[in-house]
Amino acid sequence: MKKLFVALAFIFASFRAWAEIRYIEIESVSNTAIVRLKRLEDLEFLIGKNNISVAFFQKSSGDLLITASGTYFSIFLNGYRTIDDYKKGTSAGFKNGSDFSDAEKHGITSSELYYFFTSNRFSTVADCSDARKNGFPSSNQYYAAKEKGFSKYSDYSEYLKYTELGYKTKEDWKKAEKKGFSYASYFYDAQAKGFSTNADYQKAKSYNLMDESSFKKFCEIEDSIERIISAKTIDKRQAFVFYFLVQLPKGESAISVLSKSLKNLYDENSSDVKNALSKYVNNSYYGPTSLFDQDSLRSFFASVKTSELGSYSSKTEIFKRNGNKPNYPATKKASNGKSGMRNNDENKADAK
Question: Number of structural domains, the chain?
């Protein structure tokens, strides 16, 4: 028990002596043998054992020196002026004593915050701390974001992203992405022309149908033709003729009259729709109306069954339309081809 008391008394005395060390800055040490220590623990041991109360700090070399039993001992403290500062600074991650001292002057205890502060141009430490807390990588971006009203870097970087792409608002950007648009110019042009999706907008561009009524009409015809193709397993040109046969009223027509009637039905469409249909059926050289010529119709009736629409006699060349209008089921392709023009409800929702 007595030995334990003595040991504790020695430790207390050592700590007391070390804690009350006075540090004196010196210019240099000359003509003196110096023992250089590698470990701080060894220096602390010598201080405690010899009740040392004075240590010398050499600024030019960054060394701390003590004298014990007539011998000089030194250790490199990398610019720290005291042992306490060295321990605090190194454990906090400061590169050297000079940085640690400068951080203390600014009221900074975190090395990460200090080096962020010194590598940027913040007006105040408070701004630096706020920027770091909210994820800003630099003072320039922090102050630029503040001017725009952003307090978080995530919001500001998102703002930069959609404005660089040409979008006016975040809502427009998100809406455009959802609707498949990659370019802001396409999105706003589509909005102005009434297209709600990029697929419809690009489709309208490819057929040069940039007004609402023409695009809707074309999509209706295309959808019907695609349904006919799927239901009857015929090619696109045959389905094109079949579609216009469906539009005929009930009655009998000789092939010459039938040819004219089909052409008249086709001509009821606008020139834009007709041009689009010509491209759609890939018959632009002769024009789709060539499919309604008498010879083309004879070939059509010889290869396509039209019993659900009426009957055709190859002898009399008369087509009897029964008035039925078959409703063929939608196909995936036909469904995708439906017009995506914006309706009034969509426009009202966007205006809110």
Answer: 3
Q: Are residues 230 and 263 in the same domain?
A: yes
Host H or E run for residue 120: none
* Tens of pLDDT, residues 300-336: 999 999 999 999 999 999 999 998 999 888 876 544 4
Q: 98, exposed or middle or buried, with CB in 10 Å at 0-12, 13-18, 19+?
A: middle
In which band, very low, low, confident or very high, does the pLDDT at 9 lie, cut at 50, 70 and 90? Answer: very low
195 within some domain: no
Contacts of 110 by beta carbon, 8 Å cutoff, 6+ apart: 92
CA distance 290 to 262: 11
Interior angle at CA 154, CA 152 and CA 158, nearest 5: 120
Sheet holding 318-321, edge to edge: 251-254, 318-321, 310-313
Angstrom distance (rounded) from CA 73 to CA 127: 44
pTM for this predicted structure: 0.61
Residues 228-279 pLDDT 10s: 999 999 999 999 999 999 999 999 999 999 999 999 999 999 999 999 999 9
1: CB partners within 8 A, 6+ apart: none
Cα pseudo-dihedral 169, 170, 172, 178, rounded to 10: 170
The C-alpha torsion from 4 through 9 and 14 to 20, rounded to 10°, is 150
**Average pLDDT of every residue of the chain:** 88
Q: Return the bridge partners of 162, or none.
A: none
DSSP at 25: E
Q: How far is residue 63's CA from residue 36's CA, in Å, rounded to a whole number?
A: 9
108 and 63 assigned to the same domain:
no
Judgement on whether residues 56 and 113 belong to the same structural domain of the protein: no
CB distance 24 to 57 below 8 Å = yes
DSSP 54-108: EEEEETTTTEEEEEETTEEEEEE-TT-SSHHHHHHHHHHT-SSHHHHHHHHHTT-
**Count of helix runs (H) and strand runs (E) in the chain:** 18, 8
